[in-house]
């Protein structure tokens, strides 16, 4: 029964049209809204996916923001909702709320060089940035993607790397923590911050987007500041477990900021003085 | 407009409210304390307005119940279980701190996008507030200007003048309710007596939070050793979160609805004192230590609220002090951080 | 629709009260049985221990001897998902009270012929095998049992919200038994989910659902001491479900 109040807790339905295995514990779901409408989002925003009977979970929207028919979420199996989602097949219907949150500042960064630094699953919210840049290549200077993962198998979207390398004036640097035996690996071994030695940034004209595990973001942010990047030009996408996504349930608060509506993207200036930012 | 109700006419007045189609909630005396109960027509004699503080904040429980069904999902359809906004609920005898706490909850839940469950309940609610005629050792509303008397936020307002109550109207809804309830007009003596009562109660309040420049002090104290010291005492029970009239956090979970084969989506009160509250995937937790969770509770009230909603998030009701099994006192914590007490 | 969940219900040293909760689901049980296939449930059928793989095992009771340990290990090998069902399975329960007295002493108080009792120290299941989920309480809560089974039917790990008994007690608007009557109540540190059943009936919480992660038992004991609760009573409270690792008690 509707009382004429807009109900932000009511999910819309989306049909799963494709499920891609990224690796043994990660899948990407391609979905389209059942009502035929596009899920309009901006790179860096997230949505909340319902598996009815189990619950909701927030995920970065990881597809091309200019693709109107479908959208994608990449899911790593870590908890209840993600375990349930792993059993989902094409044709199944899920609940969707959102998109929510503040996106990466792509308009503000126009004219600048971009450095994108991702760790593991942290590449998901940056993938729409890469797609956006590819479509609007003249808006930005050089683009460097620095991507690290635990092992080569932990990397996601590897099937797109070749096309990303073909984007003019974009370079892709890869590293892993270790290479298991019998695995071929022609790139770096070591932490992602070490890849920064390949880039020759013009500090005044560079915007950095970072997303990855907490420790990775912590060390990356510290190093970037030491290197002389402006705190206002270094953006992190933070992870919190959100229940409502609309600034009511309280769970995602960091100091006075709500990750769900003031973030998930913050620059270092905004979060510099807040407690409980990094575990 | 101000009127006078004789003390013995409170049951009669309660019956009048019910006769206007309202479901009435009012304080009833229990073994130790008063609590707000639903009052049926034959229970109006039980309404008792002689109390300092209830354990649970009545308005928070009425507007955001501890457990509520948000949605029912059956056969691929989502059904909203919104409360009926056209229903009428009246609450009688709410103290100023709790009325002000409701205004703070409105800032959270009516901020866009509005919470339609809260909005429906708020719209159907009529508030008959009650100025305080006494205070106890836990009260500190004067620190935030949230008591012991009320200037706004009510439909009707009572002040206890001993043998009679002064009744003031605060809204058209309130005025309509009493339009056919006969009462004599209040005189200037009655108003003066009200002012005397309020002045007397103010003088009874012994506990204080000095709010001058408080936010700067709280920010400066984020890494003060006091948080570790409090973590040694705190049981981590979350009672403070529950009894606080401005704590608004909730959890959302799905539960099976066996008979329909469907699912219900439930929300339940939650609290920042709990381990699970700041947990993220893979066992990560941003407030792993109890000290960080206590710091969050105190700072949210005394610091972050100001940025988030434009005022401090405490109304000085004293419940978190009274109900803490470990005897942690938020006013003393602040005083110590200010260097006002050892 | 996924296949029916193959479930076994097993009992070690315990009073069977938690299995009774399953039986007493009544109408709900019939609904649950639409989704699960009870392969082994000694309380309702005389079958031998199963040999076929199970999707889930609900194991009630503490492990108190080698036979039980062996049986538990067999159940573990057969089962994809193992639920420690009730206080005894979770922590040893009231059985574990005897762990701190000399062997045989408790038995001689309880039984007329203690020589027939074959049991040593009582431990929760996780002392012997990997436990995938817990149903807390003495006995378990029926709603949590249903929610857990239905989660398993959906092939997801069950979820018990991590709140305290104290919070549920406050939600009900109860007066605090500790603050009003100085009764030592374990509600502040105990896993909620029971709806604060005991304090709602004016009885202090006995802590049958175990300690909630992140709570501070030492802090609570200090509060009791400050309130004048006797050391003897504190010891009794902490030992009843013997899950309180407070130094020196």
Distance between the termini of chain A: 43 Å
One letter per element, helices H and strands E, the order of chain C comes to: EHHEEHEHHEHHHHHH
Please, how many domains of chain A? 2
Can you write the helix and strand succession of chain A as a string?
EEEEEHEEHEHEEEHEEEEH
Question: Residue-averaged pLDDT of chain C, rounded?
Answer: 90
Our measurement of the CA-to-CA distance between the termini of chain C, rounded to an integer number of angstroms, reads 52 Å
> Largest interface, with Cβ-Cβ < 8 Å?
A-B, 43 and 57 residues
How much beta of chain A, percentage-wise? 25-35%
**Rg result of chain C:** 19 Å
Q: What is the percent of helical residues of chain C?
A: 25-40%
Tell me, what is the CATH class of the largest domain in chain A?
Answer: Alpha Beta
CATH architecture of the largest domain in chain A: 3-Layer(aba) Sandwich
| CATH fold-level topology of the largest domain in chain A | Rossmann fold
Helical content band of chain A: 10-25%
Number of domains of chain C: 2
Strand order of the main beta sheet of chain C, please?
2-1-3-4-5
Query: What is the residue-averaged pLDDT of chain A?
Result: 94
Strand content of chain C: 5-15%
How do the helices and strands line up, and which of them pair or pack?
The complex is a heterotrimer of chains A (279), B (342) and C (249).
Chain A: E1 12-23, E2 26-33, E3 46-51, E4 55-60, E5 71-76, H1 80-85, E6 93-100, E7 113-119, H2 127-135, E8 143-149, H3 161-165, E9 170-176, E10 188-189, E11 206-211, H4 214-227, E12 234-237, E13 253-254, E14 257-258, E15 265-267, H5 268-271
Parallel strand pairs in A: 7-8, 7-11, 8-9, 9-10, 11-12
Antiparallel strand pairs in A: 1-2, 1-6, 2-5, 3-4, 3-6, 12-15, 13-14
Chain B: E1 2-6, H1 10-19, E2 23-29, E3 34-39, H2 58-63, E4 67-74, E5 77-80, E6 89-94, H3 96-109, H4 116-123, E7 125-130, E8 156-160, E9 164-169, H5 172-178, H6 188-204, H7 214-220, H8 226-233, H9 239-243, E10 250-257, E11 262-269, H10 290-309, H11 319-322, H12 330-337
Helix pairs in contact in B: 7-10, 8-10
Chain C: E1 5-11, H1 17-23, H2 27-33, E2 36-41, E3 54-60, H3 66-78, E4 79-85, H4 87-91, H5 105-110, E5 133-135, H6 142-153, H7 165-171, H8 177-181, H9 197-200, H10 217-226, H11 231-240
Parallel strand pairs in C: 1-2, 1-3, 3-4, 4-5
């Amino acid at each position: 029964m509707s009382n004429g109040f807009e109900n932000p807790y009511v999910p819309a339905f989306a049909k799963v049209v494709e499920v891609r295995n990224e690796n043994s514990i990660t899948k990407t779901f391609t979905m389209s809204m059942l009502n035929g409408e596009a899920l309009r989002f901006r790179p860096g925003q997230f949505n909340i996916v319902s598996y009815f009977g189990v619950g909701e979970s927030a995920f970065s929207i990881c597809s091309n923001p200019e693709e109107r028919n479908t959208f994608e979420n990449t899911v790593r199996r870590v908890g209840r909702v993600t375990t349930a989602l792993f059993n989902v097949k094409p044709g199944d219907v899920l609940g969707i709320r959102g998109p929510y949150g503040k996106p990466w500042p792509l308009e503000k960064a126009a004219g600048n060089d971009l450095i994108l630094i991702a760790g593991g699953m942290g590449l998901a919210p940056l993938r729409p940035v890469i797609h956006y840049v590819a479509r609007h290549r003249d808006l930005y200077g050089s683009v460097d993607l620095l991507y690290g993962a635990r092992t080569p198998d932990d990397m996601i979207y590897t099937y797109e790397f070749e096309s990303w390398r073909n984007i003019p004036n974009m370079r892709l640097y890869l590293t892993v923590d270790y290479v298991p035996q019998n695995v071929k690996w022609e790139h770096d071994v070591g932490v992602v911050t070490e890849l920064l030695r390949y880039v020759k940034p013009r500090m005044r004209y560079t915007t950095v987007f970072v997303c990855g595990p907490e420790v990775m973001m912590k060390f990356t942010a510290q190093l970037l500041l030491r290197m002389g990047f402006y705190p206002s030009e270094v953006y992190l996408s933070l992870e919190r477990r959100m229940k409502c996504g609309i600034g009511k349930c309280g769970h995602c608060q960091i100091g006075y900021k709500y990750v769900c509506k003031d973030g998930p993207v913050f620059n270092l200036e905004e979060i510099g003085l807040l407690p409980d930012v990094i575990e | 407009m101000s009127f006078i109700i004789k003390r013995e006419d409170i049951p009669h007045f309660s019956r009048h409210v019910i006769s206007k189609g309202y479901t009435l909630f009012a304080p009833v005396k229990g073994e130790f304390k008063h609590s707000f109960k639903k009052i049926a027509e034959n229970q109006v004699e039980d309404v008792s307005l002689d109390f300092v503080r209830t354990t649970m904040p009545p308005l928070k429980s009425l507007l955001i119940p501890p457990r509520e069904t948000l949605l029912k999902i059956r056969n691929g359809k989502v059904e909203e279980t919104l409360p009926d906004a056209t229903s009428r609920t009246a609450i009688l005898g709410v103290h100023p701190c709790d009325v002000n706490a409701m205004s703070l909850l409105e800032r959270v839940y009516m901020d866009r996008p509005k919470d339609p469950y809260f909005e429906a309940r708020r719209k159907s609610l009529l508030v008959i507030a009650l100025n305080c005629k006494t205070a106890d050792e836990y009260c500190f509303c004067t620190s935030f200007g949230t008591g012991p008397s009320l200037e706004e936020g009510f439909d009707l307002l009572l002040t206890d003048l001993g043998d009679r109550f002064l009744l003031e109207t605060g809204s058209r809804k309130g005025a309509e309710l009493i339009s056919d309830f006969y009462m004599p007009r209040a005189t200037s003596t009655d108003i003066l007596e009200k002012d005397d009562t309020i002045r007397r109660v103010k003088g009874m309040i012994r506990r204080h939070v000095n709010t001058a420049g408080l936010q700067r002090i709280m920010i400066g104290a984020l890494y003060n050793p006091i948080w570790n010291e409090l973590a040694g005492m705190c049981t981590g029970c979350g009672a403070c979160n529950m009894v606080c009239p401005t704590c608004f956090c909730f959890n959302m979970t799905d539960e099976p609805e066996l008979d329909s084969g469907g699912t219900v989506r439930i929300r339940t009160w939650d609290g920042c004192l709990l381990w699970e509250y700041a947990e993220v995937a893979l066992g990560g937790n941003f407030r792993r230590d109890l000290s960080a969770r206590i710091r969050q509770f105190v700072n949210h009230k005394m610091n972050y609220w100001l940025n988030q909603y434009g005022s401090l998030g405490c109304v000085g009701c004293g419940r978190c002090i009274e109900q803490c099994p470990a005897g942690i006192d938020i006013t003393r914590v602040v005083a110590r951080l200010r260097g006002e007490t050892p | 629709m996924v296949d029916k969940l193959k479930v076994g219900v097993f009992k070690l040293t315990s009073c069977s009260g938690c299995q009774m909760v399953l039986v007493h689901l009544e109408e709900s049980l019939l609904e649950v049985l639409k989704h699960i296939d009870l392969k082994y449930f000694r309380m309702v059928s005389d079958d031998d221990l199963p040999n076929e793989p199970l999707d889930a095992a609900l194991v009630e009771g503490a492990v108190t001897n080698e036979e039980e340990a062996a049986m538990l290990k067999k159940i573990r090998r057969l089962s994809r998902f193992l639920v420690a069902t009730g206080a005894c399975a979770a922590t040893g329960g009231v059985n574990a009270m005897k762990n701190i007295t000399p062997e045989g002493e408790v038995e001689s108080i309880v039984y007329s012929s203690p020589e027939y009792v074959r049991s040593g120290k009582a431990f929760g299941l996780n002392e012997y095998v990997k436990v995938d989920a817990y149903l807390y309480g003495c006995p378990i809560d029926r709603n949590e049992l249903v929610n857990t089974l239905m989660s398993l039917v959906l092939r997801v790990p069950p979820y018990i919200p991590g709140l305290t008994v104290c919070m549920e007690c406050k939600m009900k608007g109860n007066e605090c038994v500790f603050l009003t009557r100085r009764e030592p109540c374990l509600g502040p540190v105990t896993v909620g989910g029971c709806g604060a059943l005991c304090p709602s009936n004016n009885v202090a919480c006995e802590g049958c659902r175990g300690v909630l992660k992140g709570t501070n038992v030492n802090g609570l004991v200090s509060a009791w001491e400050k309130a004048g609760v006797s050391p003897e009573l504190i010891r009794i409270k902490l030992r009843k479900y013997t899950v309180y690792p407070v130094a020196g008690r």
